[in-house]
Sequence to fold (701 residues):
Amino acid sequence: MPNQIIDVLWDDNPVDITSEANFIWSIANKLRGVYMPDKYGDVIIPMTIIRRLECALEPTKQAVVEQFQKNPSYPEKAMYRISGYQFYNTSEFTLKELCNDADHIEANFKAYVESFSANVQSLLNDEDTLNLGSHIKTMSKGGCLYTVVKAFSELDLSPATYDSIKMGYIFENLIGRFFQNVDAGQYYTGRDIIKMCVSLLIAEGCEDIFDDGKIITVCDQACGTGGMLSTAFSYLKHYNPTADVRLFGQEYNGVSYAIGLAEMLIKGQNADNFRHADTFKEDCFHGTQMRFVLENPPFGTPWSGNAAKEGQEQAVNDEYAKGSNGRWGAGLPSGGDAQLIFIQSAIDKMDKDNGRAAIIENGSPLFTGGTASGESQIRRWLLENDLIEAIVQMPTDLFYNTGISTYVWILSKNKREERKGKIQLIDASGICHKLRKPLGNKKNEFSPEDRAKITKLYADFQENELVKIYDNEEFIYREYAVMQPLQRSYSITDDSIQNMLQSGALKTLWDETKVAELEELGTTITGKDKKKLESYYETKPVYDAILRALDMSKSDKKWLSPSEFEPELVKIFADVAADKKLIDKIEDGLSVMDKSAQIQKDKKGNIIYDKTTKDSEIVKLDETIEEYMEREVLPHVPDAQWFWEEDLTKKNPVIRTGAEIPFTRYFYKYEQPIPSKELEIKFTELERSVNERIDRLFGEV
Fold:
């Protein structure tokens, strides 16, 4: 089936949840005085979930209650068939009926919650999820339990009224209000962004999803509230109603996990495939190959060090020790940002033949780290294995709690022929619509038309102002060392003596700063430090003698080779206790780079190169170092020489081949500076305008 069948505009129906979101938000006012405003969400979110579940169960509620009364031990899975979902509630109560007995509402509400199936009870009551039991007690004590329950009983959140996508908007709105200060990406991703990712993901390479009865697996290992999974489910079921779409999710945060699991249960998904787990520590679906992976992992989340959560560093290192048999055999990024760990984990889950993934990242994974860094080597591995299909830069101010630039990585194991060995870069930073009213940091959104435009840019696979296409090798480079021949002149002047001292040539004899630090220790000084201090005072006379000898030898003379200068130093220090090693340090400290000086060579006649002139040159893989030197270096430094220092045979390999993707560089547009005359006119006009306003302010005109 041709790719054109994918219609990204099919859901072009406006989703208006304003009244419901405002109503739920208004309920929070009933918590005033009992909860601080930043804690309202701890009540409102679980109550919204309960009402959502209750509305879903309403058509089959009576049948479930009757069966339970007949046989309280009726099998759980059999009860699922009666309820129509993988959960149920055996209580005769509903939220509305609870309000008929206000005097016993606390006990009755607890009994109502405990009548849910075990999977729902765990997400509602566990301390590491929603901990609703403690909030029921707090609300009852504070005198607001009845009013909260009554308010929610009047709210229609049935699946018939709000499908999973619309319900996602409601949760998204609530979280945006209640949790505005959470870390970027901790809870949710805007549905407009998710739709964009799904549109890109299935725009090509997905002809198989239309097969009758097709089993389609979708995974998100940082799934938050399950928005990506829900949106993908809706898309795929729209395109193929006969498809068996199976959703798999892992989420660390208890609140978002609870919201997501509730929606998965309503969808009829297998609850065992939605796990409350830390992806760093656990692969809950080992061996299950996913057709699609969708993720928006948190940006800048540490996996090691004090900032990491307990056990994460050890778990990550243990997995890394498995090498290619583990989830991140390509390497580990720096401990402060785990985004490239999530990318590797996503690739590990992708079906080996047809797997595709859309991962949202910030700019850091594109270029962070030096040549030998984990980040660089992971990028290199991705490129060498031809896993990156496209990278799309999105507009800023798309997310509710961050305004930074973000990128969608499209990863693929089924690239079409013309994409093989290539990466498509798409600058979609200017394709969006302004929100009428900002929601937190979110000021922009993708309209269906925006989504269609970006998807077309991707699917057309043609270069234009917004699209660049490159071979993978464009982003892989070698790092060469470049040095100049060692040419140094030597002198004994006030300046050269000062430079020698600043170089630390005599610090072993006398270090004024260190001596002061040791003396400040007073009676608390340790034996080791005391000996160090005594040593300084023992060698201070030698230090002073060296400086006196040099001071007496100052002149304007310049020596152009060490062979000329060294005998002079030996003569100067004839009466000073300075050994050869110390004299060499002094000699080096008294020298400066000088192109008029003699080129120094070793005993075999080979040129010695000056390590102080060492510079690194980044050369693309498809270019020779000779070509690069001829073009970029030799016109400026004719005697420069390159050196290749990579050595992979060492115990700690020296790596000089890396990769980076400096995305913005490829879309940079030079802007001509404003002429000085034009600037002068503008400044003059501005000055005149300011003066006029000042005069009007003080009534002088």
In short: The longest strand covers residues 609-620. The chain has four domains: 18-161, 172-476, 487-593, 674-701. Residues 1-5, 182-186 have pLDDT under 50 and may be disordered.
